[in-house]
Amino acid sequence: MDVDRPHSAIELPEGSWWDWDVIAWDGGQFRLAAGSDLTYHHGLELAFTAPIFVSCPAAFHDPVFRAPTPEEVLRVTGQLDGRPPVLVAFEADAGGSEPVSCLVAAERLDIVQESVLRYWREDAASDQRFAPWVQIPGR
User: How many CB atoms lie within 10 A of CB 114?
Assistant: First the structure.
């Protein structure tokens, strides 16, 4: 196992990414959404393809992304019997008295920056993307 080669911290595009939640999680993807206020839309998604390991609350605030510690790398590689291609670590405010440490391992990570509506709007542009739970009339 190549556990000594470091995973680096991810870098987010410029923006106000204070509010975060999980918008999709199944065997094929784990998707986090972020914005300054998730009531009506979000502007950033971390799309993990083929998630292997996830330790993360369903909603959190103000994450600080960092490189995984050697102990975290060993924990994941030991459970998976190998090094994942993507390993993302961060500390976040999940509403407790102290930040929570989070860890996500996956085959791939795509950082997608675009406006995604969280409710139906009849006047939305034809190419506007909606959150997965939005019921779109006629579809």
Answer: 12
Each residue's pLDDT tens digit, 51-103: 999 999 999 999 999 999 999 999 999 888 888 999 999 999 999 999 999 99
Which helix H or strand E contains 105, and what residues bound it?
A: strand 100-117
Q: How far apart are CA 55 and CA 126, in angstroms?
A: 36
Residue-by-residue DSSP string for 28-77: SEEEEEEES-TTTEEEEEEEEEEEEEEE--SEEEEEEEEPPPHHHHHHHH
pLDDT band at 3 (very low <50, low <70, confident <90, very high): very low
